[in-house]
User: What shape does this take?
Amino acid sequence: MAKVESTLFNMTLTLVVIALVTSASLGFMYQLTKEPIDAANMMKQDFAIKAVLPQYDNNPLADVYEIDHFDNAAGKLTCYPGSRNGNLSGIAVNTWTQNGYSGMIRMMVGFDASGNIVNISVLEQKETPGLGTKMTKPKFKDQYIGKNPGTNNLKMKKDGGEIDAITAATVSSRAFSDAVERAYKSLEKEGVWR
Assistant: This one.
């Protein structure tokens, strides 16, 4: 009986030690990789801001502000205003939608001072490779450039709009438009487009 108790104690002790070592290793790896991952994400965001804003001479990262969603969804949208000679030249908006085929899609949408789309950069998506991932390609996303969500219908053509959906990826295409319109309507609610 004592031998069984001793064996159980040793097994339990071994499992506890393994769990502690594994936990410590995971914590160490998290701390080791956290800073480089955060730095890479900041570089990606900075690159996206530069890619979507019209010409500016300020520091949009220093002038950053947040706004509520037009539909009162949880969270906020982050806005990076660009100005030239003291006048607003455009706004980059970090926007999102949960309506993607595989869930969350995040993107940076740049508008000029009149609300026309300057450019769009996809920051994060998990859509189907070879289908929904085509949203990052110029053939799809460049359809939005120069359009104003306040005057143009950014729905898919099959829904009565002006945008050609990605073949076999209508859900991803609709989600892309949803994120763009979320950014525009949220800025509109703030009174940016006057």
In short: The radius of gyration is 23 Å. DSSP finds three helices and five strands in the chain.
